[in-house]
Structure formats: structure tokens, C-alpha cells
Amino acid sequence: MCGIVGYTGPREAYPIILKGLKRLEYRGYDSSGVALLSNNKLKVYKKKGKVAELEDSVIGLDLQGTIGIGHTRWATHGEPSDRNAHPHQSQSGELAMIHNGIIENYTQIKKELESKGYHFKSDTDTEVLLNFIEDIKINNNCALEEALRIALKRVVGAYCILLISNDDPTTIIAARKGSPLVIGIGKGEHFLASDASPIIEYTKEVVYVNDYEIAIVKPDELILKNLGNEKQTPFITKLDMELAAIEKGGYDHFMLKEIHEQPNSIFDCLRGRLLPQSGQIMMGGIENNMDAFIHANRIVIVACGTSWHAGLIAEYLIEELCRIPVEVEYASEFRYRNPVIHKGDVIIAISQSGETADTLVALESAKEKGAFIFGVVNAVGSSIARLSNAGAYTHSGPEIGVASTKAFTGQLAVLMMMALKIGFAKKTIDEKRYLQLMRDLESVPEKIKEILANTKEIERIAEKYKDASDFLFLGRGYNFPVALEGALKLKEISYIHAEGYPAAEMKHGPIALVDEKLPVVFVATKDSYYQKIVSNVQEIKARKGKVIAVATIGDDIIPGMADDVMLVPDIDEVIAPLLSVVPLQLLSYYVGLYKGLDVDKPRNLAKSVTVE
Ligand code: F6R
């Protein structure tokens, strides 16, 4: 949440920062701002709304400066407004700071500062932290870096901050705990950002700053220190990402591009790992820790949102194929409810961004208690990836659209390979089924291409139902989590109230909602629950509900009963979610589009939820 960018070097900072903010806008977009420094003078411009509004508002103003910091905000403390937008300036006007995260004890610090005569212009925790740093600097007559170190020792919460001062015309001081920070190493210049997307076109050499580290960044020098003032050696990583991957590539929206990328992103995920010809699944993270999985008394899956839905599908997969009990936990509940964790418990963490605060903190405490953490993560080098004892990247590529699409199917592909590999090693599936499921998984990219080759019918259905005020999504077995995901996608993108339910559970309550106005989406592909779901469709039709079905090509029963149908190719039910979710992603995209909404940046959301 919140995107931060910084630059120090020989070039003009503003264009670099502005471009970077546009790339990071998926992290939050209720306001944005920049601080530039030239001739020992700080200039701060900020504006409520999207980055484009900031860009318009600064036309004709003094934008000079070869050092600067910029921020795009997802509001936590204080409503979205010009005055709550970052950067904030200290009371003396000498310091400017941007912040991603939450300072939990800010009210206490604010009271202390107010009693010393400080006045605050915003409602933010950031302005409090900034003045706290300034106050320490003045009282101790020390360097800014020292004041920051002292302040951070008092701070409870999460932060990634960038700080500049008008008496140091080339230095950005940065610090992180719990919110990501990447520093790009250029020739005589440095780039700072929440992720690599603003940096990639300038350099591929980056340093991921660790928690509790402070970075002193000058054009030709990068010093990393811990909070004890000891120097740390920066570990330089080479980015494996191309600029094209973070641009729209001819699509109107990132979400549509990312839906259409799925044949390739799943292929990339399977490539070199899934080898049906030789009957092997190559996953070093599983291979090296097979004993931990085989002997696990249980597996706990920890995730949020869409990743949690992938976790639910993994529960069905792992229990069926590996016969290991699985619990799926919302990270935000798991971290606070004092769960029973034993040494050697296996925890699978699922996260696209690898930065979700709830997931990260849940894992930290489980790791402290001796659990073995296996990360299924998309963002390479992210905090969750680094915290995990082992893991498997989904290799889905950068996901920019706020609603998760290709990252979800990447997670499913990884989890399916894991379940197959462990089940086969544990001998809970026989070779015939193992090989058949491998071949089915290998066929997924081509089958998704078939779905994507004809989206006209889905567009038509979206237009037909775009004005509905509620939707119900129903599925059974492996398709139940898909129904939950379909409902979440529609809510996010179209702001239509939608609920996902197990189809059989509907008669225990939600069926009361059904009337001739309610569209009910059935994920009703041919599987072992098929006859049962046919009965559930009839129950809805008998109450005049409108049925939209995701059905299997060649099925001659469901399409005859449903009002509208979205077809997917036939595949084993264990693999089916990888196909059945695609029409639902498209349905929510087109409903959002027909409603004239910003599908890539739905209101109130942010891509990377780095606050609790
Ligand atoms: C929904 C969506 C969110 C995320 C959730 C977890 O489309 O994107 O529900 O799935 O915030 O994020 P990650 O996977 O980054 O931990």
C-alpha cells in the first residue's frame, strides 16, 4: 500500500519520479505528491486524486532538482485530501518525508510533541514521525541519520520512509520495517522505490533493503546500516524482468492484459518443472524438504483474499492427493488468535506481492515458534519470499491490475504441482493418476487459449446483467472456492454486491434472496458433483432466479437449463479451477467496463496491502 519513489543523481528528478509514481499507482491512488530539492530549497507539491491530477496541478511550477521523493497514497490516517497527501514537511520546513506503513503509537508521540508546542497540518501519523525526528535532531544537536535511528527505536508499527533535508542537497535517507524498499544502482545515480517497476528502465542491479536497515543514499554511494549503526554489506541482485512486462502492450487495461497472459504465465510456471514425459516434477523447494511434508501431521495454509481462495483449493488438492490434513487460515485472524503451532508444523504462505502485512506478521510469529514456512509467492525477492524457509515462485510476471488474475492461476499451478509431487512420493496417488493429472495440467495453457479466443458471449452476458444489484456465485467441490473468487472479482471491479456459497449450502439461507431479478452464477463443470449441481440449478430455476452457468463444452444438460452459458473445455476436476475461473475474471472485467468504472484501480483498494 502506498507507492514511494526517490531519485538522486545528475538528471532532473521530477520526470523520473512522476513516471515511477504512475507505475506504482496500483499500490494506492487517493492522492500523490513530490518533494524536490534545488539550491538548498525544498519544493513540495501534492494533490488529492490520481497521479495525473498532480501532474496537471504542477504545470508551470518550478520542478527543478536532481534529487527528489514522490508518493502515491492509500489513506490510513486521515481522509484523502491535499493536506494529508505526502510528502510532509517538518515544522521548521527543513525536512520532507514520505512514508508507506502505519505508526501505531503515533498518538502518544503526537501528544508529547504538542506539549512542546508542535502544531500539525495534517491528520497523518507520518507528519508526527517526521516532527519527532526533527525534534530529536534539534534536541541532541545530531545528524539527521542519528535522529532517525533514535526515533525508529521508539516507533511501533511498519514503515518504509524516504527523507530529504534542505541542508544536504544530494542525500536521501531511507529506512524500512515491514514495508518494501528496493534501491536501483545506476552509474553515479540511485533510484529508490516500493518495487522494481519504476527502476527497471534505468538499471537491473538492485538492492532489497531489509527490515531494521537504514540506507544513506547519495548519487555515487550507498551505505546500509542497521539500527545499531553497524554497516551492512548491500547484496546486489539482478532483476529478471523486462520493461514490456509492466506496460499494457496494446490492451486497454492491465486486468485484461493479465487475463490474456494466463496461457503464457501458466506455461512459464510449469516450464522446466512439470515433465510428464519423464514422469518428474522438478521443484527444489519440495524435493529438499520432502520429509517435512511427508511426515507433517497437518499443513496450515495462511493467506488473504484471492490468495486465500487459492489456499482453499489447495486444501482440497492436498487432502485428496496427499492425505495430509490441511487448515486454511485468513492471515489476519491467524496472527491474532494465538493458534497452536508446534515445532515442525508446515505452513504454506500464499501471496502474490509477498508483502501483505497480515500474512507476513503471521509467518514471522509462526516461524519463531519453530514452524517450517513454505512460500508460494509471485514477487521475487519480496519479504515473504525471503522469510520463507523454502518456496516456489509462481513466475506469473508483474501483476499491475489491482484485481488478481494471473497470479491466482499461477498459485494454483504451483499448488497443483506440489500436491502431485508430494502425493506421488507419499504413494497416496498411483502412477497412472499422477501421470494423467500431469498431462492434464500441461494441457491448461492451450485450453485457456480456447476460452480466450471467444469472449464475445461473456461480453454479452456482462452487458445483460450489468445493472443487477446483487449476484450469487455457487459451486461445489473444487469449484466452490472458484465461486468465492468469482464473487470477490465482481465486487472489486463492478461494486456489485456478490456472495459466493457452496451450492448445497444455499438452501440453508441464501435461497431466500432468489427472485426473478437475482443472477445466480453456477460454476457447474462436469465433475463428480455434476448431478448434484444440476439439482441445485433446478432449485434456483424453480424460484425464477436467472442462471448463468460456467459449463463444460459438450454438456447437453446445464446449457439447456441456464439462461446464459460460458463454456470451458473438459478437464479433470482437480485441475478444473484453472479453467473455470477464467470466464469469471472476464465477466467481472466486462461488467466493470460496461459500468464505466476504472477496472485497474477500483475504489478503496490497493494492490499490495502492507498495512494491517
Ligand atoms: C483480490 C486481491 C486481493 C489479494 C490479497 C492478498 O483480487 O488481489 O484479495 O489477493 O490482498 O494479496 P497477496 O496475494 O499479495 O498477499
For the record, the CATH architecture of the largest domain stands as 4-Layer Sandwich
Shape: globular
Give the mean pLDDT. 94
Amino- and carboxy-terminal Cα gap: 10 Å
| CATH homologous superfamily caption of the largest domain | Aminohydrolase, N-terminal nucleophile (Ntn) domain
Number of domains: 3
SSE topology:
Layout: E1 3-8, H1 13-23, E2 31-38, E3 41-48, H2 51-57, E4 67-73, E5 88-89, E6 95-103, H3 106-115, H4 125-140, H5 144-154, E7 157-165, E8 172-177, E9 182-185, E10 190-193, E11 205-208, E12 213-218, E13 221-226, E14 231-232, E15 236-238, H6 254-260, H7 262-270, E16 274-275, E17 280-281, H8 284-287, H9 290-294, E18 299-303, H10 305-322, E19 326-330, H11 331-334, E20 346-351, H12 357-368, E21 372-377, H13 383-387, E22 390-393, H14 406-426, H15 431-442, H16 444-453, H17 456-465, E23 470-475, H18 479-494, E24 497-502, E25 519-523, H19 530-541, E26 546-552, H20 558-561, E27 564-568, H21 577-594
Helix pairs in contact: 3-4, 4-5, 7-14, 7-16, 10-14, 10-18, 14-15, 16-21, 17-21, 18-21
The structure holds fructose -6-phosphate (F6R).
Fructose -6-phosphate binds near residues 304, 305, 356, 492 and 609.
